[in-house]
Design goal:
mainly beta, Neuraminidase, 5-stranded antiparallel β-sheet, 6-stranded antiparallel β-sheet
Length: 427
């Protein structure tokens, strides 16, 4: 069971073609009903990750708008949720970048911005006030030994499961997947950051390792700049022996050259808050952190800091399950929370919620797509609409982009029914 837990915790995870594709929201394999959700609505998405550098599988995107107006997206590229070294992928997975200069209508051919000897994954990107762009990520270092190991149980995926979910343990965990082949073991490395000083056209190739003094700290979030000039990176930790996980933040006082000690979030709760801490600054200068729960068994939790991250209050249940939370504050001051959502009947899907009261309550959920990959990221477009990117998961997974109109009023959703967004064309 220990190996199963390791798989569940460590994998966070995570187009040149501008033809407007269409899917329906109907999931034919699951019974689902909602008075508010139109399951036959067409999704006007675009695939933005096609290209030679992108490999056979793309996942875990993150997006930001640059000061020059461009929108850039980074993502993981390989052959599966974990890309093991092979003849085709001798250096495992890599980090790619694509760019739009026209508000998401067209996208550049993806380029590789980082690819060392390890499986580089969960990239997140942000531009700071001085124009520097920072990409944060972590890596998996594979064991080269062929020594055989004893395992509790070996259960093979069906062909359908492999097509839909690849080797993603987050989505296979209910199938009691226990093991991986003995030669496919790894150690996590990171978090790391690399910088670009020319709007993302060239990148440092010697990453900065953020010291955590413990092997089990990772990051699936972007570096942020606080009002006092400090850089903040949300991170997370797992303790397999205590079956618990918690969040944290680490700070830099010198623009990312060195990093201070970690401040933990939620450790005392003794819960499996397994990954993917995300932080947003509220209007009263409170820092609000949200942490992923344990699948759909433990809801996401949140905590607040009233001293700019030096200390954090006890965590609280946010009221709903989810993975990979990501915040965006709109110009009209609402906060969008995009995430991999869960519904007992629909299963996992790509969704959003919205707060109009500084994260006190969350309106929704709204369904973006029935694709289970998610790990979404949003930016507000110049016309006030919202662009969201997310990944599909499974065989030949790609990065999708969808444009939608933000919900304009609060919905009384006491029955917790999934709601539709108003899709807009990307053209």
């Amino acid at each position: 069971m220990k190996l199963k837990r390791i798989l569940n915790l460590l994998l966070i995870s995570c187009a040149l073609s501008n033809v407007c594709a269409q899917d329906t929201l109907r999931n034919k394999n699951k019974a689902f009903f909602s008075n508010n959700l139109n399951l036959t609505q067409l999704i006007p998405y675009k695939i933005i990750s096609t290209g030679k550098n992108s490999g056979d599988y793309q996942a875990v995107p993150d997006m930001c708008r640059l000061k020059n107006g461009d929108i850039i997206v980074v993502f993981y590229a390989g052959d599966n949720h974990v890309t093991f070294p092979s003849e085709k992928y001798p250096k495992a997975g890599r980090i790619c970048l694509t760019r739009s200069k026209d508000e998401g209508q067209t996208w550049s051919t993806p380029i590789t911005i980082f690819d060392d000897a390890h499986d580089n994954r969960d990239p997140h990107i942000n531009q700071l006030s001085d124009g520097t762009i920072i990409c944060s990520f972590f890596s998996l270092e594979f064991e080269l030994s062929t020594k055989k190991c004893n395992y509790e149980k070996k259960i093979e995926n069906t062909k359908e499961e492999s097509i839909n979910y690849g080797n993603n343990p987050d989505l296979l965990r209910d199938l009691e997947i226990e093991t991986m082949p003995p030669t496919k073991k790894w150690t996590g490395r990171g978090p790391f950051i690399i910088k670009s000083y020319d709007d993302g056209n060239s990148w440092e190739q010697e990453p900065v390792l953020i010291p955590t003094h413990d092997i089990d700290w990772y990051s699936s979030a972007k570096v942020q700049e606080l009002p006092d000039g400090r850089y903040l990176l949300p991170i997370y930790h797992t303790d397999l022996y205590k079956n618990s996980g918690w969040g944290g933040v680490v700070f830099s006082l010198d623009k990312g050259t060195t990093w201070n000690n970690i401040t933990s979030i939620g450790k005392e709760a003794n819960l499996m808050l397994a990954a993917e801490t995300e932080v947003i600054l509220l209007n009263d200068n409170t820092l609000y952190a949200i942490m992923r729960g344990d699948g759909f068994k433990i809801n996401m939790h949140y905590s607040v800091s009233y001293d700019m991250g030096k200390s954090w209050k006890s965590v609280n249940d946010i009221g709903f399950a989810g993975h990979s939370p990501s915040f965006t504050r709109l110009k009209s001051n609402e906060i969008i929370l995009s995430y991999r959502a869960y519904d007992p009947q629909l299963g996992y899907y790509t969704g959003i919620r919205m707060s109009r009261d500084e994260a006190k309550t969350w309106e929704g959920p709204y369904l973006i797509d029935t694709k289970v990959g998610a790990y979404p990221s949003t930016v507000e477009l110049k016309d006030g609409s919202v662009l969201i990117v997310y990944y599909e998961e499974g065989l030949n997974s790609s990065i999708r982009a969808v444009r939608f109109r933000k919900p304009t009023y609060s919905v009384n959703n006491s029955l917790l029914q999934i709601l539709n967004v108003d899709y807009l064309p990307l053209e």
